[in-house]
Records
---
Amino acid sequence: MDKKFILAVFTVLVSFIIGLYFYNQLPEKMASHWNAEGQADGYSGKLIGTFLLPSLTLICLIFFSFLPNIDPLKKNFQHFKDVYYGFILVFVFFMFYLFLLTLFWNLGHSFNFTQFILPAFSILFFYIGVVLPKLKQNWFMGIRTPWTISNEMVWDLTHEKAGVLFRLYSIFILFAFFVPSALLFFMAPIFLIAAYLFIYSYLTFKRLVE
């Protein structure tokens, strides 16, 4: 089994252990959702508030472990196996950090939650930008449009473009740290990137194939 995957499993187990350790110190009503200004505006019971994020991460980890075996194009996974497991590890670290922020807040430390997660989002999207150009055709990861799935060259060109855009976007996220409604500020461009890549894959397919 890949070492990165083992480290990801270990990180999830540690999150459960930390949750158990601090469980009695946490309030019965825990903050579990924050608005665009980084202030808590949603709450849940202690059991859900403590273990929801570790449980979701564990479910995602199990799902990720099965993907290479159930994809109709599973032979292609061998070509990007290293970055695939790297992505899993980065994703698990991201969820672990989010979990720690949640615990810290509910242990009585107030801060702008949104601004504290922005650097983590930046790292996550930067790594996605590194991963995308290395992906080969598959049905679960990447920019999957009718045209990228239908043509390998269109897939490669679209993902090269996507890699650049996501890395630039990761830098843009850091500037959102200085914006009051940071969450709204940094979420908006992702929809423009998605629309651009959709159109780009179509036009590239028209240029190369038709």
---
Amino acid sequence: MAKKILVIDDDVLVTKSIVKYLKVKGYEVESADSGKTAIALAQRLAFDLIVADIRMPEMNGLEAIRKIREINSLQGRAHPQEIIITGYASDDLQKEAQEMQVAAYIYKPFDIGEFMAAVERCLT
């Protein structure tokens, strides 16, 4: 069975590119353009991996991940691995992601090989 990945990013072009590439690699992929949309998806579906942008309107990616973790706990699901992607350098956010034990923190624009290596590490 294909692994399920949730991509959360408010940049439509980034989301389309990531989703298309992951699907070509055989993954089942859902996307959300906001943290709120991602949370709604996570209430209905279980994911093996979450790829989230940090800087989004209304709710950043780390806040969305926290809420999805709460949903998974309440529903008795295992927590998926998480990869943060960001175009903005922030020591505070990177430290917060490390404290949350996020699996990878990747800066945009990223090398697709580096990204896929992180995805594969998270899903094995």
